[in-house]
Amino acid sequence: MLAASDIRVRFGGVVAVDQVSLIVHDHEIVGLIGPNGSGKSTLINALTGLVPAEGSLEVDGKPVPLGRPGAVSRLGVLRTFQTPQVHDALTCLENALIGLQEWNLRTLAAAWLRRRAMMRAERGRWERAQEALEFAGLADKSDALAGALSYGERRRLELARVYLGRPRTLLLDEPAAGLNQVETQTLVRLLKSWRDADGPALLLVEHKIDFLEELCHRMIVLELGKQIAAGEPAEVWADPRVMDAYLGSVVIDA
Ligand SMILES: Nc1ncnc2c1ncn2[C@@H]1O[C@H](COP(=O)(O)OP(=O)(O)O)[C@@H](O)[C@H]1O
Ligand SMILES: [Mg+2]
Predict the structure, then answer these.
(1) Domain segments of the chain: what residues?
(2) How confident is the model at residue 125 (pLDDT cuts 50, 70, 90)?
(3) SS3 of 144, please?
(4) Homologous superfamily in CATH for domain 1-76+167-254
(5) C-alpha 157: how far from chain center
(6) Is 77 in contact with 93 (CB distance < 8 Å)?
(7) Which atom in ligand 1 lies closest to the alpha carbon of residue 34?
(8) What is the pLDDT of residues 126-146, one digit of tens each?
(9) Which ligand 1 atom is at minimum distance from the Cα of 45?
(10) Average pLDDT, the chain
């Protein structure tokens, strides 16, 4: 379980996130929505330690220091970015492998003594990376350079990488942005199959309404850094403050 209280992020004079509190329970899918510039990405950056923030954060009841990316990822909280973070010059399999923590062997002697285990581990790593590519629908692309992938495939490659990291909680920043209708549906199916296979809790930033409705148990709405509404999707859409905040800024897929 991820629990954040009174998160606040300031950039100079701008308060980008203002006293936001939220809880994401295990296996729960929570949508984080709001117009452009409302602080969604900044909140995710704050929760994953990428920007300095005030407030407090707990993972499974343990306090986690803010502003330290390693601290939260070690507790199983992973994320993807609004722009997919993929290394073009590496193959898809290599990109996926980045999702695994490397062994930290201090000395060469230790490495030599453990060489059999290392070879087994190496094989295991490859198998798991291949499995992650299969999960993401990229099994036949394992040797292809990531630079040759379509945008939708790059998005799914990023997902393969976090899948390998076995997150307990995953923060997804606009995973369907830039995807066409078919790719968006593929992504919905993929996230549903992960959910049904005991997958991670998701905090999902997204603009596409059909995407949110298919996946979210709850939604949280930000406007100008503040939470203005929260609840089940139907309640949230019916809230007049949400309508006002969204008027003219939402992307509705026909
Ligand atoms: N690194 C930064 N430096 C200064 N201002 C920033 C920075 N990142 C975001 N902001 C500002 O914080 C506000 C929230 O931005 P952001 O979190 O990206 O919104 P959203 O993801 O909801 O579109 C905006 O006013 C944006 O200009
Ligand atoms: Mg954003």
Answers:
(1) 1-76+167-254, 87-166
(2) confident
(3) coil
(4) P-loop containing nucleotide triphosphate hydrolases (3.40.50.300)
(5) 13
(6) no
(7) 22
(8) 899 999 999 999 999 999 999
(9) 17
(10) 90
